[in-house]
Every structure is written in structure tokens, then in C-alpha cells.
Amino acid sequence: MLKIRNLRAKVVDGPDILKGIDLDVNAGEIHAVMGPNGSGKSTLSRVLAGHPDYEVTGGTVEFEINREPKDLLAMEAHERACAGVFLAFQYPTEIPGVSNSVFLRAAFNAICRAQGVPSVDAFDFRALLTEKLALIGMDDSYLERPVNLDFSGGEKKRNEILQMAVLAPRLAILDETDSGLDVDSLRIVAEGVKSLCTPHNATLMITHYQRMLEYITPDIVHVLMDGRIVRTGDHTLAKAVETRGYDWVRDEA
Amino acid sequence: MKTARTKPVSDQYGDLFGAFIGEREGKDSVALLAQRRAAYDRFVVAGIPTRRVEAWKYTDVTALADRHLAHAVLAPIGPDDIAHAPLLHAEDETLVYVDGIMQPHLSHRHDEALLSATALSEALTESGPDLSALRADRETPFMALNHALWRDGLHLHLAANGKMERRIHVLFLHSQQSSDVIVNPRLLISLGHHAEASIAVTHASLGDAPCFNNATLDIALDEGAQLNFCHAQLLNPAATHIGATSITQQADTTLRCMDFNIGAALARHDLTVAMVGPGATTSLNGLYAVKDRQQVDCHTLIEHAAPNCSSRQLYKGILDDRATGVFNGAIRVYPGASATDGQQMNRNLLLSNTCKINAKPELQISNDDVKCTHGATVGRLDDQELFYLASRGIDTATARDMLSRGFAEEVLFQLADRQLHSDLHEILNLYFEKTV
Amino acid sequence: MTDALAERSKEYKYGFVTDVEMDKLPKGLNEGIVRAISARKKEPDFLLQFRLDAFKWWQEQEPPAWAHVEFPPIDFQDIHYYAAPKSMSDGPQSLDDVDPELLKTFDRLGVPLHERERLAGVAVDAVFDSVSVGTTHQDLLNEMGVIFCSFSEAAHKHPELIKRYLGTVVPPHDNFYAALNSAVFSDGSFVFVPKGVKCPIDLSTYFRINASNTGQFERTLIVCEEGASVSYVEGCTAPSRDENQLHAAIVELIALDDASIKYSTVQNWYGGDAEGRGGIYNFVVKRGRCEGRRSKISWTQVEAGSAITWKYPSVILKGDDSVGEFYSVALTNNKMQADTGTKMIHIGKNTKSTIISKGISCDQSRNSYRGLVRMTPGATGARNYSQCDSMLVGDQCEANTFPYLEIHNQSAIVEHEATTSRISGDQLFYLQSRGLDSEAAISLLVNGFCKEVFKTLPLEFSVEAVKLLEMKLEDSVG
């Protein structure tokens, strides 16, 4: 469903960070993109989500919508979200004054509208939310709190997964979702993610460490270094990186 | 007709200044004498602000315009005379001033190599700086008067990278005099880069005679310096205190400040902290506790003029009898001071039905990358808490006492220096013993 | 209209000028002008004396300068103090006789006055420059005993009520602009709700400045007798002009025992262009007195226009157990300046006040909250809660908070909180990455920030207010 060819990108007014990425993701697959700090992992996730701070300098990204390949790079950030691309942020943004329930319903209905499905009313939506809340171990009181404001690190990450559960994306990009989590939160978050993986969607996990991969076994592992994917393999590659470090991959490459 | 914004000062001030400047001839450099004359002229031109001036909206100081003030006539004072002066500890670096005059025989110096103490009159030679230029744009009439009239000013300097283990204590006392006197404490403190010190400045009285204590204090922290600073105003109930304290913080400096105001019939303190270098942090705690007919007016201004600075401020006030309190605290964030984090809280406890508090917390923000909050509360002791204590068998008077002390303790608790904490705690005990 | 003006009018959709023949008094202010205004309106003598007394005092005063706003000195001799469409100069007429050009103007402003199209559920008094054009829904109001008419009409038909209440909340000598208004006020609205009557529909005045070089000085007086209640809404617009125009109105509210007055304003006077040229100086004195026990006065304002807004809708809580409320959203963009807030003066026992203020500063504007809470020694058991939040959009604007808490009673409980935040590119991206387009994202942020205020507005005005803010914000949020 996702086909990336020779993708090059940079921060506006900065040097290239992505220097030619090739990546294919099919429905039902879980991919892990690993790499050391500064390799371009977060840039890749933000470029795919359409962050305005980045400029694509070359290459293509095709995303299948209704079985038709579409140029993802030509779409606005909200259009990508409506088409089923979801980014779980490494540092979720605080939004004072806007409650989680209002925010989630606005997003849910925007996506429903874009996909030609009728919107839901507040009552039905609440029922849906209650069900999803259980998945990440949060209670109703959370819904009335402003989005991410005064959330602990663990709560912010769980909130990202809740949004993912509610918005049901076809392509979920998890940017360092395991960072800043204690062991218990990591387990809840990982199990939440795992339960959301189906044969119809795909997951791209971007991570530095193997922690999260203990819970979710990826089908394919890529190692990203200096803006390029230098090695691709199965889940054993992740283990090898963990034990032998990134230098080993660099030397091999 | 509307009242004027200032009240002209009486000729008494001219006589006071004339006599004083005559004495200084030959002692002060020509340049300093010129500075003093210029400062006096600015004082006369400015006059005494009336309540029409926003900064003096709640405190009337116009009586000062007509006071017949003189410099104190100094009688010999020995160690026994100051035995009961507050915050005195033999192990401190102590500098004692009586009526604005340095008392070497009452002071204790331990480490003169690290901490230099220079008389301002020596520093201000022909080539020396004009002190009043330090804060030229902010000079109040009282600062100008201070510069015209200070007797022994002091410049304390801690060398770069110097870490002063001992507490530095500058004690300003005024003695028992038969006439109404003016004392003008003048102090300049500078910490070299990455120097560390703990400094206390105390204003106190020997006896119960009135006095107009008009203090000006400047503190400069060079890069990376760390200062624990305590300002304690403990004057007798007949005194008038007007103080201006200005602290400038360069990059990566840390300031922990305690502003303790409990004395004087009328006390006004303007405390300005300017964070001019990035990465500076300030924690500013204050307590004012007044009763009878005391008036206290605390003005604070925290200026965020550089990026990535943070400030935390907690000021608490306790008022009893017919006392009046003012808290005016401003946080000002300048353009370019991105990633600013400023918080201010002011809480006031009213113990009588005849006291008054005027609180004016202000935010002035000229930058969008800021996180600033302020809050202010006014109230009496909480009925629920009183009842809870009563239900455990504690009588009302004791319960009120416990809760009032607890209210103050939250501020004192911020002091890292346990000795200072216990000293101020003792002083506060006296307030409560006579109050509750 | 010049091209430049036409260009600007696109941004400010109420910036058009209506071409009608005007009856203007010459520029300048002197006793003769004051007398001429009174004569034009064929006023009873007590009103002329009221004006002359105010004028005499005003001449001895200097304009106040304490607000955190900057503007060149106003030349009070360079302003027309009276302008009225010629067709209205023969005094009040029925709506059928109103110049069609004027009716068209109000249609364009979304305030149709004609019987067929008038807004359901809202009675409107339309004021064009210095005079009232007409008031809708008169029959229903007459039936209930509610008086809602232009001030000029009230001066003729109900002089005893005017005499009893005028200037009792804002005395002519209260301040410089209050005195100026008291001397030269032109028209405005008068509302009287008799004992026990709950006014069944919202009452609304729509103010329109049209003529150039003309000051607007309306006077609104609302009285609710024992147990009565009314909800009143004020809206305003003006053409885009290069010059600054002065608007110095007075609003007085009086609530007797158990009465309740809700006063809402959606202010969208022309605010000047991006360079700060032109726009209205909105210097208004609004004050209510909770005279009776358990009375309630509630102000809601959405201030989105004017080059300078300088006003403090206030409540004097005199009756025991009375309640004062102030809900405000003030948005400034371009080079607009606002210094606005409230005063809550607690006199009676167990009086309560709530202040919720939301300031949004964009571009190079300056937005200040200034508010006073005073607990007098007699205000036993009084309470106040204030919350003042500022939102900054862009790094060249200014947001200030100046609360004054004067507490002279031990049993009073006062809490004040203030925060600042911003609308940032990061927040917009976060919302967009969840499927919201930029318009929906801004709307969500604005609603989130202002919801406590919007929910106090009558529904149709709330919708209008949200749209107004979104429109103004869209240009500023990059």
C-alpha cells in the first residue's frame, strides 16, 4: 500500500537528511525502522505525515487509496490523515483548552466525512470511546482533560495509541513510541498497538532500541543510517543490532 | 482640582544636603561630589511621588516631603551594644554598619583574599563610574536621594570561580538618636563568573527611635554565578523603610532569593530581577507579616530579557489588626526572550476584620514562546481546617496559631540555609506571640 | 471608493459607505453646539441642563492617559458632534417611512428591520450615526409593558423615567469621556422592564457609524424593576476610513430586587488596516448597578474590532446577595490596541462576582486585561473568582494582565489566576495530522480557548462571534 522510491528530504533551509529512501509496505505487515540518533528516522515519519518544516527534494511516495496509487506528497497533512495515514508523535503536542473528547470527535468525523461515511453523534461516539479507553487502561475522566496538557510521558504515549484505536488508520507510523516509557507503560502501549494490527492495515515502527519489538514481532526490519536504508532483514536483524550495535551494520555495509 | 503627581520637598532637605556636602569636601573625589550634587538636584526636581503615580497608588509617602531629617550623630558602639542584633553569627563574614557608617571593630572578616570589600568613596575616583548611571532610566527620587547622601557605601566583590563557604552578612543598623534621622545604606555586590555565595542583608534598629532608612542595593551576577540571597527588613515599629534592590543575572546564573519584611511603620521594597543572559533561573520567595498600623508595600519586577530563562515566585502575606499590605508583582517578557517560563503566586492571609490588602500581579508579555502564569488569593483561615483541628481536641486559639504559622512556613521552607531558616523562624515567632 | 479602500473593504466586509444626505452640525464643541443638539431633539429642559452641566465640567478636565494604549492627542474641535440622515431629521417615524437606502444598509449588515424579514426572537433598535432608524417588534413589547425605544423617543414619552435614572450609575462628572458623552450624546436605546416581567425576546441595538469625521456618542439606559429580567445584545460596525473616529458611549444598567440583566456585545468596528491607519477609537463607559437584593448583572463582550478599545464594563454590587459577571473575549490583530476588563465593586453582603477574560493578540497588536476587584469593609462574605487567559499568535504582539485586588474585608474570598499560551504551528500540524483542515483546526483551538465566554452568548450571536474570530485569526496564524 506504500511505495517509497528514492525519497530525499531536508529541513527547510537545511542540508539533506533523507538521501534516497526505498521502502515498500504491504497490508498486514509490521515493519520496524531502526537506526542510531540522527540517522533520519523521525524525519522519515514526519515527511510521510506532511510536516511543514520539511521539504522533499526528490523521489516519490505512493499510497494506495481505494486500490489506486496516489501521490502522498501532493496531499496536505489533514488529507493524508483522512486517507488513513496516522503518525504517533514522539513528542505529542499540548493543546490547552481543547478536551480530548471534543478533539477526537472532530477528528473522527472529519475522517468519516472524507471517506463518505456518516458522522456519529456525541452519544454514540462516547460509547465507542469507552470501549477503546479500556484498551489502554484509562478511565473516562481522561476524556475531559485538555489534549496532552499536563500528561505524564506515559499518558501522552497512551493517548497517541488511543487516537490510533479510534481513528483506525490503514498505515500507522509510530515514532519512537517506546521512548520515555517505564516497563509497565511500555507493555500497555505495545499490547495496545499489537491488538490493532490486522491483515488490512500496516504498521511502521520507528525506533532506536529493540524494547518494543520484544512485544511486537516485526515482519521486516530496516536499518536506517545517514539518510539511507542500509540493510533489511527479518526480526533477527533487530536482535543482532541490539547485541552488536549499529557500528556492526555500518561496517558490514 | 486633581492632586499633583508629586509633592515638592521642604527646604529642610536643602539644609541637610548643604551641611553634608560640606563635610564631604576633601573626603570624596571631585567626580563623586559632582555626582552627589547632580543626584540631589534630580531628587528635588522629582519631588515625592503622590498616590496619583501608579507605582505609589496604594502607599502614601508624601509625609516624607516635610520631615525634618538629620544625619545621626554617632556615639561609640561596642560589641555588647549589638549583642542582640539579628542574624549575627561569629563564623559569618560579617560587615556591620551603624547609621550608614562602617564599623570595622564590630565586623568579622575571615577570607579577605576571596571576598574584597572596597569603600565606594575609594572606588569612585575621577576615573570611577557614575553609580547613578547603573539604573539611570529607573531611578526613583529615593534612589537619587540615597546617592546624594550615603556616608559609607560598600562594594563587595567575589572573584571569578570563587566559592565562599561562609555566609556573608551585611548588617545595617541605626542607633538610638534624639532627632529624626535619615540613613542611606548603599551596597554594591558583584559575583565573578561561576562564583558561588550566600549573602544576607539585614536592616535592623538599636532602640525604638524613628528613622528614615533609605537603602539602595545593586547585585550583579556574572556568567554561571550562583547566589543565595536573603533580604531581611527587621526595623523597629517607628521606622520608615524605603528600599530599592536590583539584581542583574547574566547567562546560566542561578538566584535563590528570600525577601523577608516584618518591621517598620511603613516599609516599601522594590525588588527588580533582570535576566539578561540566556539560561538564567530565579527562585524568588517573599514573606510580609504586619500588624497594628504597619504598612508594607512589596513591589517585584522580574524581567525576562533573554531566552530559556525561568522564574518561580512565591510571595505570602499575613496581615493583622489595622495593618495594610500591598503586593505588586510583575513579570515582563521582552521580544526575543523565547522559551520563557515564568510563574508567580501571591497568597494573603487576613487575620483581622480591619486589615487591608491590595494585590496587583501583572503579566506583560511581548513574545509568543512563553509559559507564564500568575495567581493571587486572599482569604482568612480555612474553616474546614480549623474544624478539623478542633475535632482533634485543639482549642481555637492554638488551631489559629498553628495554621497561621503553617501558612508562613511554606515560604521559609524554601530557604536552603538551615541557620537562616531558624533565625527567621525565631523572628516570626515574636510576630505570632504578640498576634494570636 | 479608492482602490486601496476597496482592497481593504474585502478584508473588513462591513467597510462600505452608505450614500445618504446628512444633516450635520458644524465641527467643534462649544455651548452653542450642546444647545443645538438638544434643540434638534426638542428635548425637555432638564436634559439641556444635564448636558450643560456636564459640558461645563468637561471643559475643566484633561483627557486621561493611564491606559496601556498609544494614540496622538484627539482634537476635540475637529469632530462633528451631530450627524443624522436628512430623511430622519423630522423625528421618529414608522419603519415604513424610513429611507430605503438605510433599510438596505441594515440588510447588508445582516440586521433586516422590515416587518417581513425581521429577526425572529430579537427586537432590534437600529442606530445610524446619531439617530435611531427604527425599532422592530413593538407590538409584542407593548403588550408586555416593556419599553424599548430610542433614547430620544424616551425623552419625550417617558421623561419621568429618564429623569429618575439617567446619570445615576455613571454620573456626568465620573470621568472625561463620561462628561463628554453626557454633554453631546445623540441617541441610543432605552429599555424599561416593569416589575415581574420577564422580557420574552432578546432586545438588540445595532450601531452603525457611517458619516466621516463624526463622533458617535450614544447613551443606553436599561432599568429592570423588581423581579424583571431582560437579555440585551449590541452589535456595531463602521466603514473603512483612513481617519480615526471617536466612539464614546455610555451604558447604564440598573437592576432592582431579584432583577436580572444580561448585556452582550459583539463589537466589530473597523479596526484600521495592517499599517495601523484608520479605525475607531472605542472609548466606552459601561457600568451596571445591582441596586436590589439578589439582583444580577452579567456582561458578555466579544471585542474584535476598533483601532483602540478602552472600556471596562463594571458592576457595583450594592444589594445583598447580588451577582456580577463579566465574560470577555478580546481579539486584536494588525496594529490594534485593547485595554479592557472590568471593575467589580462589592458593597453588599454575600455578593459574588466572576470574571472570565480571554485575550487573543495577533500580528503587531497590543492586548491588555485590566480589572479591579474591590471588597469594601461592609462586603461580608463576598467572593470573587477571576481567570484571565492570554493567547499570543506570532512573536511581535503583546499580551498584558493588570489585575487590581483591593480587599478590605477579612471574610472575603478572592482568587485570581492568569495564564498565557499560544497558537503555534506545532499545534496546527498535530491537529491536521489527525484529519482536520486548517480552518477546522483554528476553530477548534479558538473554541477551546473561548468556550466559557461563548456559551454565555445568545445562540445566534455565539455562532456569529465564532465565525468572526476564525476569520480574523486565519490570516494571522501561519
Element layout with pairings:
The complex is a heterotrimer of chains A (253), B (436) and C (478).
Chain A: E1 2-11, E2 16-25, E3 30-34, H1 41-49, E4 54-65, E5 68-71, H2 77-82, E6 85-88, E7 95-99, H3 100-114, H4 122-135, E8 146-147, H5 153-167, E9 171-175, H6 183-196, E10 202-207, E11 220-225, E12 228-233, H7 235-244, H8 246-252
Helix pairs in contact in A: 5-6
Chain B: E1 6-7, H1 11-24, H2 30-46, E2 48-49, E3 93-98, E4 101-102, E5 115-119, H3 120-123, H4 141-149, E6 154-158, E7 168-174, E8 181-183, E9 186-191, E10 196-205, E11 211-221, E12 226-234, E13 240-249, E14 254-261, E15 266-275, E16 281-290, E17 295-304, E18 310-319, E19 324-333, E20 340-350, E21 356-365, E22 370-379, H5 383-391, H6 396-412, H7 418-435
Parallel strand pairs in B: 3-7, 6-9, 7-10, 8-11, 9-11, 10-12, 11-13, 12-14, 13-15, 14-16, 15-17, 16-18, 17-19, 18-20, 19-21, 20-22
Antiparallel strand pairs in B: 1-2, 3-4, 5-6
Chain C: H1 3-11, E1 22-24, H2 31-40, H3 45-59, E2 83-85, H4 100-108, E3 122-128, E4 131-135, H5 138-144, E5 147-150, H6 151-157, H7 159-165, H8 176-184, E6 189-193, E7 202-208, E8 219-224, E9 229-237, E10 244-247, E11 250-255, E12 260-267, E13 279-290, E14 296-303, E15 308-311, E16 314-317, E17 323-332, E18 337-346, E19 352-362, E20 366-375, E21 383-393, E22 398-407, E23 413-422, H9 425-432, H10 438-454, H11 459-476
Helix pairs in contact in C: 2-3, 3-8, 6-7, 10-11
Determine the oligomeric state from the structure. heterotrimer
Low-confidence blocks of residues of chain A = none
Mean pLDDT of chain C: 87
Helix proportion range of chain C: 10-25%
What is the ordering of alpha helices and beta strands of chain A? Answer: EEEHEEHEEHHEHEHEEEHH
How far apart are the termini of chain C?
Answer: 31 Å
> How many structural domains in the coordinates of chain C?
2
CATH topology of chain A: Rossmann fold
Query: What is the strand tally of chain A?
Result: 12
CATH architecture of chain A: 3-Layer(aba) Sandwich
CATH homologous superfamily name of chain A? P-loop containing nucleotide triphosphate hydrolases
What would you call the structural class of chain A? alpha/beta
Q: Share of helix among residues of chain A?
A: 25-40%
What is the 3D shape of chain C? globular
Largest interface: B-C, 36 and 35 residues
* Cα radius of gyration of chain A in angstroms: 18 Å
